[in-house]
Amino acid sequence: MRKAKTAAGQLTDADLAALDAHWRAANYLAVGQIYLMANPLLLEPLAPEHIKPRLLGHWGTSPGLNLVHTHLNRVVRDRGIDALAVWGPGHGGPAVLANSWLEGSYSETYPDVSRDRAGMERLFKQFSFPGGVPSHVAPETPGSIHEGGELGYSLAHAYGAALDHPGLLVTCVVGDGEAETGPLATSWHANKFLDPVHDGAVLPVLHLNGYKIANPAVLARLPEEELDALLRGYGHEPIHVTGDEPMAVHRALAAAMDRALDTIGEIQRAAREGGETVRPRWPMIVLRTPKGWTGPAEVDGLPVADTWRAHQVPLSEVRTNPDHLRQLEGWLRSYRPEELFDATGAPRPEVLRFVPEGTRRLGATPYANGGLLLRELPLPPLTRHAVPVERPGTVMHEPTRVLGALLEDVMADTEGRRDFRVVGPDETASNRLEALYGATDKAWDALTRPTDEHLARGGRVMEVLSEHLCQGWLEGYLLTGRHGLFSCYEAFAHIVDSMVNQHIKWLRTSRRLAWRRPIASLNYLLTSHVWRQDHNGFSHQDPGFVDHVLNKSPEVVRVYLPPDTNTLLSVADHALRSRDYVNVIVAGKQPTFDWLTMDEAIAHCTRGAGVWEWAGTEDGTREPDIVLACAGDVPTQETLAAAGLLRHHLPELAVRVVNVVDMARLLPHEEHPHGMTESEYDALFTRDKPVIFAYHGYPWLIHRLTYRRLGHANLHVRGYKEEGTTTTPFDMVVRNDLDRYRLVMDVLDRVPGLGVRAVSVRQAMADVRTRHHAWIREHGTDLPEVADWTWQG
């Protein structure tokens, strides 16, 4: 990173005046977006009809965001660097939109919002207006990868964006309200995972304007010495800029920016050219400026600027209160728009003096439109890792261990290009993915000891015991054009429920923007799942993440429950190749029976749901008497075991076995792209025959997905019903009535007339369940006929 052509201390008065002109122009445009829908250049006195009927937006943070954007422009232009900005106070949308319009990237993206008077009027009117654009920094905003409506994730996104982009500077503005959130507090530790050789740099700017929506901000009320000690304890080198006099702040912030970038350049040169291995103390800027700076000092006798009252709309009655209208006009004219925009409404050259050109503009950087940088992931042929299956249900493998070998190949094949990472909360080895360490280490730039294993600065497995930070890293990584996988214990994926909500919304909106290119999907591997957390107990038993995800936008979300190793390989291959999805894969890490060959697995996963003819007793001449359906590895095993019992005890019963891999297949075709048509669903499950469905998670999800189907009244679902403890694997399914013996009893209860004819079979099933309870309490293991069971069909 080059030093500035002109040191900040040598900036001329003309330089500072140009920076101030840009800042004033951005402030003017931000205020205009909140209030105006006509008369954008104030060529006539402001009147009520020029004002929007609903005033929405956030003014308080906008002057600070405009200030940072203005000064980033200078260092990017002067140093010729590639930069990306993450705006933590994303509700400061008017500021980011204003700067994008000033630099021209907005008009290039949206030609109808031209960089002239007509375009300015459209820019103003569309903001938070029906049919317009959101008030937050949304996917519609050029240069953005971070929505910011929900606070806490900006710094994690920034670090994710910097990973494996060695020439990139990512500046992240952290709001002082946002800094109170748990995810943001954890994100300060991300500097211990940043490699100065292979990664770019993150420059955090902690903006302390003093207030949240109605309360003071904690960090803003700390004495500077205490705050400085806190940030130094996190491993940063804080550079403090404080003030409320514009020209003094301009000079101080310019000096801070140059100092920070010079330090970053020295750190990177020392690591890349000098072989320095000591963890650096990365710089950051602490910027203290008033909330609502340059806005109304007082409204209706109450202080506004530098108080919480400046947070949103300082003057709320402009259309009906003449005093408010006069104050708004005075506020807008205080920026001297006639000096900033020419007669056509275009920004004057002085305003644009420090704006970079081309793709170095913050609104035009390809790093914020990651699909432009995305390359196909080199995936090995599945036959390389497929497990042989001579007969179904006789041999076991650990599915995720086999998947780990495939991921090792991907990691090795991307070593030169470094665009694939695996993240997880301290669980890579626990989840049987340790084969990855044959191709890479775990990223780590803190103290190491001789007993440590697989730690290295340049590692591409990311482990930290914060699901929030893992999620934020991966989102930032994907949004800037790379690929990845998030491996997590199933029960604790809920920690990022809200984060995945926001990412799904981002993807859904992005799909509707032709200029946003598709990015690699966000792939979850949920393992150590509910049915094999028998050793950790109730706290680790929760299969509800899939319910949460399937509530979201159908065109974005996909949920897969592969029943064995080869189906997991097929599903993972599909997910890693996909674009613009959130893929949730639930698969066990414990030994699981192999049911399908690789070819059969690919065909079955392509269908998403299908009949396993070899498992049932249909003869093809009539409809089955009963359908046994299953989704998930343990429910599949119990269903196959139940089918075997029925084959033995009731050979005349026509049993159909249906396995579901893709949960969205159960939805109507009109509601999800993967959904089955009515005829497809009826052909698979029948219209009027009983269906016993053994499901991995909460039973009501199956009912919700199928409630409109004609045969729904005949559907009986078994699944997890919040019965858990530390026990044996089979006792978990017994406690939740998902076991093979209960499934057989369900068949006897629901096939008309069968219960009377087969009362002895039902009694035998109940007796085994009774014997099971006594056995595990005496021996601590499962019944031999369960533990030693194999498929005999």
From TrEMBL:
The Xylulose 5-phosphate/Fructose 6-phosphate phosphoketolase C-terminal domain covers 589-791
Superkingdom assignment? Bacteria
Which protein are we looking at? Probable phosphoketolase
Q: Which SUPFAM superfamilies match?
A: Thiamin diphosphate-binding fold (THDP-binding) (SSF52518)
The UniProt family comment states: Belongs to the XFP family.
UniProt keyword annotations, A-Z: Lyase, Thiamine pyrophosphate
Spell out the CDD domains in the cross-references: TPP_PK
Instruction: Give the main EC class.
Output: lyase
What PROSITE patterns does the record tag this protein with? PHOSPHOKETOLASE_1, PHOSPHOKETOLASE_2
> Which metal ions or organic cofactors does this protein require, according to UniProt?
thiamine diphosphate
The residue ranges of the Xylulose 5-phosphate/Fructose 6-phosphate phosphoketolase N-terminal domain are 11-372
Q: What EC number(s) has UniProt assigned to this enzyme?
A: 4.1.2.-
**InterPro entries in the record:** Phosphoketolase, THDP-binding, Transketo_C/PFOR_II, Xul5P/Fru6P_PKetolase, Xul5P/Fru6P_PKetolase_C, Xul5P/Fru6P_PKetolase_CS, Xul5P/Fru6P_PKetolase_N, Xul5P/Fru6P_PKetolase_ThDP_BS
